[in-house]
Amino acid sequence: MALFDLPLERLRDYRPDRDEPADFDGFWKDTLAEASSHPLEPSFTPYDAALSTVEVFDTTFAGWGGHPIHAWLVAPQGTTAAPCVVQYIGYGGGRDLPLDHLVWPAAGFATLVVDTRGQGAQHHNSSGSTGDPHGGPHMQAPGVMTRGILDPEHYYYRRVFTDAVRAVDVAAAHPAVDADRIVVAGVSQGGGIAQAVAALQPKVAAALIDVPFLTHFRRAVEITDRDPYQEIVRFLSTQRDSAEQVFRTLSYFDGLNFAARGEVPALYSVALMDWICPPSTVYAAYNLWAGRKDITVWPWNGHEGGGSRQRDIQLRYLRDLFAG
């Protein structure tokens, strides 16, 4: 690893022009309205996780298209109306097991850990259980970055972001959760999803956005040769005449456009040696975030960012936020 992006003093002021389609807000309004035509139908089935201080529920709800989405709800034993962290997962990962999600319950929070449709089979230590029955009519490179990329209506992340917005409604529906204190959180892909949901879902009270993926697509594909952004490059290297359409589609899903609409308090983190989600892409979103914001900088780390140190900062951040 090495410093490869803009120096920190330039990152702090980096505000690129946004490529925002004129119908961005209408696209998402129509998308979420279409999704709302399907009953949410949250199901919370008690799950024996062999854990004595928390309650665990194997959770299912109707996401985009009414498709079943799986999640874990883990809450302190016997709690009611607790704050809740809705967690979204990094690229290729899954919700895995309840025992992997005990930090927030130990701090008195409930947590809803949401599977990402069509993922969960790429990491040896993280499995998922939610498929993606709607793949769109177009070809794709390996992975999901180019699934349906020639049309925003069919693009994979339209379904993922919609699932994620509805997951907040699921958390709010459970008696263990205080619907006025719901936080969205994630690392990498999860951070990009949280960033979008915080702008789209009015029930969100705050956002924890770590080294977010799905942000400032054009710059990312031009300065890093790492996956998952390279999936887009490989697609364009063979579909040579599709660049204009590809970047038009991506403009509906770019974290920069969501950040400009983010009004809730947000805590970001960035790693200055991150070749997967380059620091300029993170700072671009952070600098555009419209609401109250803070950022933690990890100057000597790659995509792992602050790890448990960042989680420690988040615990204190939310404690102080909700104490006020």
Automatic annotation (TrEMBL):
<dbReference type="InterPro" id="IPR039069">
    <property type="entry name" value="CE7"/>
</dbReference>
<dbReference type="InterPro" id="IPR029058">
    <property type="entry name" value="AB_hydrolase_fold"/>
</dbReference>
<feature type="region of interest" description="Disordered">
    <location>
        <begin position="118"/>
        <end position="141"/>
    </location>
</feature>
<protein>
    <submittedName>
        <fullName>Acetylxylan esterase</fullName>
    </submittedName>
</protein>
<feature type="domain" description="Acetyl xylan esterase">
    <location>
        <begin position="1"/>
        <end position="320"/>
    </location>
</feature>
<dbReference type="Pfam" id="PF05448">
    <property type="entry name" value="AXE1"/>
</dbReference>
<dbReference type="InterPro" id="IPR008391">
    <property type="entry name" value="AXE1_dom"/>
</dbReference>
